[in-house]
Amino acid sequence: MLKAFAHYLVYDLFGMAQGSRLSGALEFFIYDTIKIFLLLSVIIFVVSIIRSYFPPERTKRILSHKREFIGNILAALLGIVTPFCSCSAVPLFIGFVEAGVPLGVTFSFLISSPMVNEVAVVLLWGLFGWKIALIYMGTGLLVAIIAGMIIGKLKLEKWVEEYVYTIKTTGAAADLARQAFKDRMVYARENTIDILKKVWAYVIVAIGIGGFIHGYVPEDFLVLYAGPQNPFGVPVAVALGVPLYSNAAGVIPIVYALMEKGMSMGTVLAFMMAVTALSLPEMIILRKVLKIKLLAVFVGIMTVTIIGVGYLFNAIL
Q1: Any idea which of 24-28, 252-256, 276-280, 283-287 has the lowest mean pLDDT?
Q2: What gap in Å lies between CA 39 and CA 196, rounded to an integer?
Q3: Which residues contact 177 (CB under 8 A, 6 or more apart)?
Q4: Segments forming the whole domain that contains residue 177
Q5: Integer Rg of the chain from CA
Q6: CA-CA distance, 255 to 117, in Å (whole number)?
Q7: Residue 285: count of CB within 10 angstroms of its CB
Q8: What is the dihedral angle through the alpha carbons of 190, 193, 194, 200, rounded to the nearest 10 degrees?
Q9: Which are the contacts of 295, defined by CB distance < 8 A and separation ≥ 6?
Q10: Is the pLDDT of residue 56 over 90?
């Protein structure tokens, strides 16, 4: 329905020619803008209601294990069963930080949630077999756990934007655990509006970048510059994946096409991880939550880790 509406606006109402780069980019922009804002609104609202049953102390107790790496593992596993894109994982990130969950543990969830989920595993299994599906899931979890542990050891809480720690002072979250469902709904609505006000401009910019890439970058561009003949194909694939925006399930058709054209498995896995967990649109949205220094540390750790995964699997597969 949303695709049909975007198609109607671009080609019927605006009268643009089908097949042009501009019309393709505009159709992508309209469709993704509506889709992502609907998705964000629903997810923030639902998560807010769920959080009302889990006061900060309970959430912190579940994920703040005295052995912090256990918390990283639990958070990464939680990411598997929350099939969110990177943008919609941000509200949960805020909730974890507000609850006092260690920052490294929170990052393990933030990485795992868009990168690894049951939809992606099923699709990978169907297209490439169970070995590739398990390899991707295992490496995705490993990346999330290791990156979270490194960020946790660096003690970078001071590089999270201050407003994230004060969100709980703007609502009635403290006493919600004992309140009626009607009050929880009111809290969820207010929290949804509050977060959307803070991130809407970043989301628009992110979708605009994705629309430009969709409309103006040739389909064979990645294969041309990151193919098996290029020894630097893995970092090139990661760099080219960064401007894109998709969840794991959405990027799998692209991955399949790249495999059909002869791209190495490790390079393809690195590209997929970059698109889902290291995309420029995600970084733009996360900038509203993280200070530039922490964002730079996150990007650096993820880039090195993903490139390492790519070269490793090119060598063994």
Answers
A1: 252-256
A2: 11
A3: 52, 53, 54, 55
A4: 20-316
A5: 20
A6: 16
A7: 25
A8: 170
A9: 283, 286, 287
A10: no
pTM score of the predicted model: 0.66
Residue 107 is which amino acid? F
Question: Do the domain assignments include residue 11?
Answer: no
Task: Extract the tokens encoding 112.
Answer: 């795992």
Q: Which two tokens stand for residue 50?
A: 């769920």
234 lies in some domain: yes
pLDDT at 3 (0 to 100): 80
Find the angle CA(130)-CA(231)-CA(228) to the nearest 5 degrees: 50
Q: Is residue 308 part of a domain?
A: yes
Asked whether 30 and 12 are in contact (CB, 8 A), the reply is: no
**Tokens (6 digits) for 239:** 């760099």
- Which range (22-26, 27-31, 105-109, 212-216) has the least confidence? 212-216
Residue 307 to residue 19: CA distance in whole angstroms? 35
State the total domains in the chain: 1
- 3-state SS of 113-154 is HHHCCHHHHHHHHHHHCHHHHHHHHHHHHHHHHHHHHHHHHH
In a domain, 1, yes or no: no
